[in-house]
Design a protein that fits this description.
This protein has 174 residues and is α/β, with parallel strands linked by helices. The protein is built from seven helices and seven strands; from the N terminus they run αβαβααβαβββαβα. It has a seven-stranded parallel β-sheet with strand order 3-2-1-6-4-7-5, with helices on both faces. Helix 2 runs parallel beside helix 3.
Length: 174
Amino acid sequence: MGRMSVDEFHASDKLPLVVVLDNVRSLYNVGSIFRTGDAFRITAIYLCGITATPPHPEIHKTALGAEDSVSWHFCKDTMEAVERLRSEGYTLLAIEQCEGSTMIQDFKALSGQKYAVVLGNEVKGVQQQVVDACDNCIEIPQYGTKHSMNVSVTAGIVIYTMSERIRAARPLSE
């Protein structure tokens, strides 16, 4: 299928997008997010708090090796990741339902801007102090009876949409 090797992946241009996982408890969700991150060639994943880190068989089961291609960092506290990314010039976006949030379909990427999206715990969502420290919230519209989606499904929607918008603003070399 003409896929790049892990070494080629590491050497390639990355989408200026980082995913921050704020206390995600399911190792299968973590692995799935690694795999989606690989598919869209994101810059990195920050694994924070109780979020498990590779190597781990349950992460590998859904990541299928993407934990080796996508760069990752561990932070004991999510605020540490937020502060580090802010100091590196990232715009921080919590993926959360909150007053004044931007619906994902209305998100516009700026050319040359780097983005970090924060996804929260499967039950509690993104910690309020982390939401407060972000530049904005991005919300996915939902029309059914539930008010949330699985974090790995949410990550897929967000990474895909952000990839489309960022690439439209500034295409990467293939």
